Amino acid sequence: MKENQNMKENAHQGYDKLDGQIPSTKKNRRIINIIKLILPIIMGLIAVFEYVYLPNHRPTAKQTNFYNGFLWILIGIYTLSLLISIKNKKLREHLIYKAPFYCLILLILMGLDILTLKTEKLRLPYFPYADMIFNAIVKDSDYILQSTFSSLKLLFIGYFIGSLLGLLTGILCGYSKKVSYWVEPFMKILGPIPTTTWLPVVMVLATTLFKGAVFIIALGVWFSVTLATMTGIRNVDRSYYEAAKTLGASENQLIRKIAIPSALPNIFQGLTAGMSSACTSLLIAEMMGVESGLGWYINWKKSWAEYSNMYGAIIIICLTFLFVNWVLRKLRDRALIWQEGMVN
């Protein structure tokens, strides 16, 4: 009896200690989160101070407010998001999670500015400083906009053609053994070969360079989407088909109602991989033959040793492809929203 009483007293003491620790832990976590949220603003101000007040390696170096303005825009956007997050818990959690990464980006920008403009450890013309790149983008904005439009036009034409053919081929190969018998051997032969390997042959055989580039982009997308779709449909549980057949479903309904919806996660994986392949093929095609687009612009500026323009175009490419992938990810999340219900 005494032992049981002692155990109960010890348990109560343990709960009292936990009750004292939990508020303290929550308070510490809250303080850490506040520090995390404020750090990007502090890092942004340090980056502005470094750019404006740290002396340049060459006092005569041309320095404008484009880069400085860019930093203030980043600080302003983050500050506005932080104010909105006061009443938006989801946004606040997102900012807490992303704050260390935002600090890293600002630290990289500051480091590059110190290595180029402030110390010239990375020398011109091969490593222009950030403000120089921003000036090059603004000065050559007309050319860059035209090149971006040409690249997007070529990218989406090739991507949509390859995606549609890949979906069709993948559905037929995944569902029908007869179709798979004829198509799959060619996929095994063409699959390991990078699509850009065919570029010299296609550029000779195609009636125009644009059509040749479209074919190269579509070929890479076709393979990725076909393989992913075929794999997704083959992994569908056969009991679903059997249950649907007992309810009187036709072959067309089996494909539309069971095969395709069940394979959607794999299909979107293929579409994402296809976009990556399309972007690579696009730049190589533009650099080797197509006389327009961002890849062509980069090659042109590199040949004239205008590296600030070249880096500016690379930044535009990165932003463009990030936006395209973001749109594709949003479409995937929208189409697969039913998976969240299954997980919950």
From TrEMBL:
User: Is Cytoplasm among the key words of this record?
Assistant: no
Give the ABC transmembrane type-1 domain ranges: 148-328
Q: Which domain of life is it from?
A: Bacteria
Spell out the family assignment given in the record's similarity comment. Belongs to the binding-protein-dependent transport system permease family.
Bilayer topology: Multi-pass membrane protein
A Pfam family matched by this chain, by name? Answer: BPD_transp_1
Name of the protein in its database record:
ABC transporter permease
Q: Which PANTHER family match?
A: ABC TRANSPORTER PERMEASE PROTEIN MJ0413-RELATED, ALKANE SULFONATE ABC TRANSPORTER-RELATED, MEMBRANE SUBUNIT
Where in or outside the cell it occurs: the entry states:
Cell membrane
Indicate the transmembrane segments per the record: 34-54, 66-84, 96-117, 154-174, 186-206, 212-233, 267-290, 310-328
Provide this UniProt record's keywords sorted from A to Z: Cell membrane, Membrane, Transmembrane, Transmembrane helix, Transport
Native source organism of the sequence: Anaerococcus martiniensis
Which spans of this chain does the record mark as coiled coil?
A: none
